[in-house]
Amino acid sequence: MTVRKNQAQLTADEKRRFVNALLALKRNGQYDSFVTTHNAFIMSDTDNGDRVGHRSPSFLPWHRRFLIQFEQALQSVDPSVALPYWDWTADRTTASSLWAADFLGGTGRARDGQVMDGPFAAASGGWAVNVRVDGRNFLRRALGSGGRQLPTKAEVDSVLAMSTYDAPPWNSSSDGFRNHLEGWRGVNLHNRVHVWVGGQMATGVSPNDPVFWLHHAFIDRLWSEWQRRHPDSPYLPAAGTPNVVDLRDTMRPWNDVTPADMLDHRPYYTYDTAA
Amino acid sequence: MSGITRRQALGVAAGAAAGLAAAGAAHAAVQPAEPRPQGATAAPGSFDEVYKGRRIQGGPTHDGGHGGGHHGGHGAGYTVRIDGEELHVMRNADGTWISVINHYEPRATPKALARAAVTELQGAALVPLALG
Lengths: 275, 132
What we know:
The complex is a heterodimer.
Chain A: E1 3-4, H1 12-27, H2 30-44, H3 59-77, H4 153-160, H5 177-182, H6 190-197, H7 211-229, H8 259-262, E2 270-271
Parallel strand pairs in A: 1-2
Chain B: H1 6-10, H2 16-26, E1 47-51, E2 54-60, E3 78-82, E4 85-87, E5 89-91, E6 97-99, H3 110-121
Antiparallel strand pairs in B: 1-2, 2-3, 3-4, 5-6
């Protein structure tokens, strides 16, 4: 059974296996296909048109399915691997063990943003950025640049307290839990973390940085936490909404999975501690 | 970005202008840092300047035969270029803008967005939208 753990609690062996599985998917080309898929949805999900992966109610079930698919790809390389999550309310500085050279490596250098240490640094030779939006083929970061701060526990709690899952017009201007978690409105949780990391994480090709998966695993965990706090609050909308994935509509690109299928993570994975 | 055709990426749709107007009207309360001369319900005007050594241009898109009709939205009827290469941009429902370079941090205007992209690029070339 897959158990997703807090990245801060991983053993040296778990970190090594996770990193090696990422590098293996990079070598065999599977990794970049996930980046391509994500960017295609980033560019096509619009507030007034079809929207599936982002700025819409299905942001959460879409990314849950996306992460399950990625985790299964990792497990095809090493069955012992599970996606860790990054609780950025707790591990909120560049000194976190997350950014050490034995795990994801640190921030980029000033001149060009290039990450210089860790297994994903360009010098390691195993992490070319192929699916890209600019000419640079090396991993970049600018952790906390401009004095930006990661969200606090209190800010997360203020969003978890919102009892309505989502609301019309079901996009980046919506009130409700989903859009406040996604960050287009309010204190800004998910979006702000992408910006805090910088580099490719701030772009449409954000899965080029492996921290993408740890960030989204924590967002996914917050959805579970919200469900626990609001057991009577359903996924919305229920049916008949143009351009939006209703509860029992299938989601692209899989076309065989609905938000209803993704409401309970436990058939796929559990957490190290109660969500 | 293989797998995304230029047509899909640009998506200059006949309905884009109507959708844009609706978006602006519904969220006219958002005040951009730079005034939009045509009012909150219209697309911002054009710009053309050199910023940090890069030529940035922007302006409303007129359907130049890209085929139209694909999904609507995407560039929302507005095109931004950096040194002649198109930057994929999108207008949010509240009237703010994002690009594929700064996807998670809205800017008030396309010009501010283009400047942010130039800063982020640190001199690097923009990759053409269509790779496939």
